[in-house]
Specification:
Number of strands: 0
Strand content: under 5%
Shape: globular
Radius of gyration: 18 Å
Largest sheet: none
Amino acid sequence: MPSAERKGQSFFYYFSGVILLTVILAFGLNILSRHYHLNSSMTLVITHGMAMLLWYSLLFGQTWLIRTGSFELHRGLGITSIGLAVVLVISGVLIGISNYRGEGEALTLLGNLAGMFNFVVLYTLGILKRHKADTHKRLMLLAGIAMLSPALVRILRLAELNEFITLPFWLLFMAALPIYDWKKSKRIHPVTWLGTGLILLTLVISMVVGMSSTGKNLVQSLFGNS
């Protein structure tokens, strides 16, 4: 692999590693400190937690396989990840609804559903565009960033900080890919624009709806009954 190309792959390798460590740190510290509350069954929580950990581990592992030239294994694992993604999304949606019924926080539910929606869109596009490397790797990285908010929230809870501080931290993760694109080629890749724009758009929509009385009533009518 040419040195310039290897340098480009290094960003995705190290950044996906940072994301994986963030997820492990967030959920690991919450488990060790017993700083959590469950409104869902333990089976569902464990299923979702394992699916999340495996998916982020796979995201990191896939970048390592590309760096080492293991392209066939990379492609094979990519296709088998579809089942894992399905489990992740279904369990995540069910946990979000269950937590809403226990806590009544419409904004939290809509934020979680927006993250799952963005993941589905970006991951599906990433699978469909798997033969276009520059597009594929950006879509998969953005899919991982789309689901990162709950992990950041848990870190802030441990530090006893306001959960709204999650937003600037999340924006730092989202800014990394556009900055990389600009430094690499003096332009931002169209897929980076698309994915970042989608995440920001759904974030704004979920905040506006989740903080309005009309939105809260709508969420209550849709998800409030067990």
